[in-house]
Design goal:
The protein is α+β, with helices and mostly antiparallel strands and 89 residues long. 44% of the residues lie in helices and 13% in strands. It contains four helices and two strands, in the order αβαβαα. The longest helix is centred in the middle third of the chain and has 11 residues.
Length: 89
């Protein structure tokens, strides 16, 4: 689901996608690197599972953006972004 999640963000013209790996033991990052060869994707590898909140903080410190959207890797973004665009038009 991680690849689908990142792809949904990229489809919505995100400038950068930061994926914080909390010490995963599956092949999700391998699939992400193979299927999403995109310069906007940045992978940050933690050696341990620090938890979602700590991963969000790491992402916030890494990014220079004024606005961040942080979500779990089992989320798909396209519906949310379209609704946000309607709200801010």
């Amino acid at each position: 689901m991680l690849t689908e999640s990142a792809q949904s963000v990229l489809t919505e013209d995100a400038r950068h996608v930061f994926v914080v790996d909390n010490g995963s033991h599956d092949e999700s990052l391998v699939y992400l690197e193979i299927f999403l060869c995109d310069e906007r994707v940045h992978i940050i590898r933690n050696g341990n599972n620090l938890g979602f909140a700590a991963a969000c903080n790491i992402c916030a410190r890494t990014s220079a953006a004024n606005t961040l959207l942080l979500f779990n890797p089992d989320s798909v973004l396209y519906i949310v972004m379209r609704k946000l665009r309607l709200c801010y038009k």
